[in-house]
Amino acid sequence: MTRFTLLAFATLLLAACGGAGRWGHARSYSPTKDEKSATEGARELDAPMATLKPEAWRGQKVKFFMVVSERKPGPAGSAYLTGKQHTLNEINGCDNKFDEESCRVTIKPTGHDTVHAIVRLQSDDDVGELHVAVGSLVRVVGTLTDATDPNDGKLVVQASWYRQWPLGYYAKEGDLKQ
Q1: φ, ψ for residue 129 (rounded to 5)?
Q2: DSSP string covering 13-36, please?
Q3: 177 within domain boundaries
Q4: How far apart are CA 33 and CA 19, in angstroms?
Q5: 59 lies in a domain?
Q6: Quick one: 51 exposed, middle or buried, by C-beta within 10 A (0-12, 13-18, 19+)?
Q7: Which strand (E) or helix (H) includes residue 137?
């Protein structure tokens, strides 16, 4: 192999290893390419305002983070997730400030309003070791529906995109160093 070929191969290898990966192991939150596209034009969900002024929010594209407190079967094979909205920290917590692999996507420890999301899960997020379950952190992008949950009257979002972190793959502020 020529020196140029080796250099090109090493560059490609490094590029493939770059980024925060599926679980966001980075010092600050790192959205995926698909996430950037999905969140474009979406409003951060303000559940109290959406409840107070539903005509201004219904049908709007929204985005939010939630920690799942309940998962039930939803319509047409989807999952019906219930959970509290959480605020993302700007800086992720890390076990070792010199090793980004030790960093975890970090949220504020206290949840806000309860919200429901209808999500069509990908196969490995639906079943398996790292599936969406109680305690998972989920970022949801979707449309606020006209319906409210029949049990608690809270907002329901029809997801068009999601990203999830199983319990133990994210942190709450104070769990790790900042």
Answers
A1: -60, -35
A2: HHHHH-S-TTTT-SSB----HHHH
A3: no
A4: 11
A5: yes
A6: middle
A7: strand 137-148
Find the mean pLDDT for residues 142-147: 95
How far is residue 64's CA from residue 9's CA, in Å, rounded to a whole number? Answer: 39
Within a domain: 28: yes
Tell the residue number behind the tokens 């502020």, with chain if given.
173
CB contact burial 90-128 (16+ within 10 A = b; e otherwise): eebbbeeeeebeebbbbbeeebbbbbbbbbbbeeebeee
Higher-confidence residue of 70 and 102: namely 70
Domain that holds residue 135: 3-172
Q: DSSP state, 118?
A: E
Q: What is the pLDDT of residues 11-64, one digit of tens each?
A: 333 333 445 667 778 889 989 999 999 999 999 999 999 999 999 999 999 999
Instruction: Classify residue 178: in a domain, yes or no.
Output: no
Total structural domains within the chain:
1
Q: What are phi and psi of 46, to 5 degrees?
A: -110, 90
What one-character-per-residue DSSP string does 51-102 give? HH-HHHHTT-EEEEEEEEEEEEE-GGG-EEEEEEEEPBPSB-EESSTT-GGG
